[in-house]
């Protein structure tokens, strides 16, 4: 559909600029990637609008009329203004950016990566503001409806319909009270399943954390003695008990510094989780959001050194991980 200003089709301004520059229908057609007949038609409409021939034949070449000469600079200036103000987004400057960014994230992601990121961004982008929203039963819907700008969640739960980026990986460890005699040494698989467990389930659907879901998939039975609504309440529920929790390593590294807890390695292989950030496809060129994602990923990558025992996902195992994702999401939807 042509955009018009008065009776002028603004799409013709580009053709006019080419004609005024090249002083030739055929050369202007090449520049515009149009046929010669289409360019001649454009010239005809321009002549009609301006009431002037614009280009006239003189000998073997075309020359500009005086009216056409007058139009060269104004047309070029208009197109340059369009290019600089509309076609090309202004550069993003975090130091002066004034923006609210809404992020949906779990308390775990907020604690282990968002807190450090937002602390750094407070210096780099002092006028930007951030709103962290709790996870809902259907976080992708919040992306679809543009209720949030960024979704930070396990990669199994993101949508294939919108852009995303892996932010960090994390594995799981066993955490329990430091005075628990059972945790004075290595935790064996037998001991792991003998002890009582504390786990987290979320929202009205009582969605299990990945660690609980994975253990169930292995047909292993744990004795769940306490169910918590958040990741951050797990540490306090372990203190003074003989219970254990299977916790993300990044979170465990933090809580053992402030609680009388110890961390032990998991006695069996469990795939690491991958936290991804996702945004609506219409925001793919939003330079502010892309900058936040870049800083988030950079800061997350230096937060914790990769432990020696982490189970790496190599390319040949991606199919197995994809299969896990299918089962995880299918099970989530049936709850």
- Calculate the terminal CA-CA distance, rounded to whole Å: 48 Å
Largest sheet: 6 strands, mixed
Number of domains: 3
Second rung of CATH, namely the architecture of the largest domain: 3-Layer(aba) Sandwich
| Percent strand | 15-25%
By DSSP (H or I, 4+ residues per run), the number of helices equals: 12
**CATH H level of the largest domain: which superfamily?**
Periplasmic binding protein-like II
Q: What's the overall geometry?
A: rod-shaped
The CATH class of the largest domain turns out to be Alpha Beta
Task: State the helical fraction.
Answer: 40-55%
| Rg, nearest Å | 31 Å
User: Unreliable runs, pLDDT <50, ≥5 residues?
Assistant: 1-6, 305-316
How would you classify the helix and strand content by structural class? alpha/beta
Mean pLDDT: 87
N-to-C series of helices and strands = EEHHHEEHEHEHEEEHEEHEHEHEEHH
Features of this protein?
disordered N terminus, Arc Repressor Mutant, subunit A, 12 helices, 335 residues, alpha/beta, 6-stranded mixed β-sheet, D-Maltodextrin-Binding Protein, domain 2
Fold and architecture overview:
The structure is a single chain. The chain is α/β, with parallel strands linked by helices and 335 residues long. The chain is built from twelve helices and 15 strands. Strands 9, 10, 11, 12, 13 and 14 form a six-stranded mixed beta sheet that branches. Helix 1 packs across helix 2, helix 1 packs across helix 3 and helix 2 crosses helix 3.
How is the topology of this model organized?
Elements: E1 4-5, E2 8-9, H1 12-22, H2 25-32, H3 36-50, E3 55-58, E4 61-64, H4 66-87, E5 100-105, H5 107-124, E6 129-133, H6 139-144, E7 150-154, E8 164-170, E9 172-177, H7 189-194, E10 196-202, E11 207-208, H8 210-217, E12 223-228, H9 234-238, E13 244-248, H10 249-258, E14 261-265, E15 273-278, H11 287-301, H12 318-333
Parallel strand pairs: 5-6, 5-7, 10-12, 10-13
Antiparallel strand pairs: 1-2, 3-4, 7-15, 8-15, 9-13, 9-14, 10-11
